[in-house]
Amino acid sequence: MIKLISFKNCPFVQRVMGALIMKNIPFEIEYIELSNKPQWFLDIAPNGQVPVLITEDKTVLFESDAIVEYLDDKYAPIEQLSAEQKALERAWSYQASKHYMPQCGTMGSKDQQTFETRLANLAKAFAKAENKLGGSAFFKGDYISNVDIAWLPLLHRAAVIHSCSGFDMLAGFPKVQKWQAALIESGLTDKTVPTDFVQTFSNFYLKNTYLASLMDGTEAVASSNGYASSSCCG
Fold first, then answer.
1. At the N or C end, where does the chain have fewer CB atoms within 10 A?
2. What sequence ranges are listed for the domain GST C-terminal (predicted)?
3. What is the pTM assigned to this prediction?
4. Pairing state of beta strands 2-6 and 27-31?
5. How buried is residue 165: exposed, middle or buried, by Cβ count under 10 Å (0-12/13-18/19+)?
6. How far is it, in rounded angstroms, from Cα 85 to Cα 80?
7. Are 16 and 64 a contacting pair, CB within 8 Å?
8. What is the DSSP pairing of strand 52-54 with strand 27-31?
């Protein structure tokens, strides 16, 4: 069986899990501690980052873009696409994945000025999606595609921030908000993160950050390992 090596808050891993789940590929997952990476993991991961996927023939794959493309090549694709359509799909997926870390940096901002500066840059990605989206529930129609899976981590994290702090990172982008709601309603968000995701996520992004200052202080945040740096996944 395929094995996925992860750490609980990694958006890149969530994307890979989304692909595995949508393709109905059986897999097992093992979580490691970001602050204490085991030696066996460092021995097999060329860049020391998650996700790492160990295939059924024990080949170790790394880098989320490469892993997702492998899953498309190895298993039945979600939809049949021409070479041009596949290239466009990958380009729009890349528009999402290259903004995972900028979103993490925005959410982790310690003061309002830094937060607003970073958010303005992040908003450019949402603006591109807003201009591309039509009237359907998902990016390409009424079904979840690889593009939706790629954008899932960005939209899911924005939803958690909105729910916990009241701040909507998608304000001003009604089509993206509708898209976000459809993805969450589909149930895919909950299937692609651990059961304690909101707690571990909040423990890092909603403590000692600008977003934390927007909260009323009544939310209980569990102690756990959080998402720490750009060196953790890719």
1. N
2. 82-211
3. 0.90
4. parallel
5. buried
6. 9
7. yes
8. unpaired
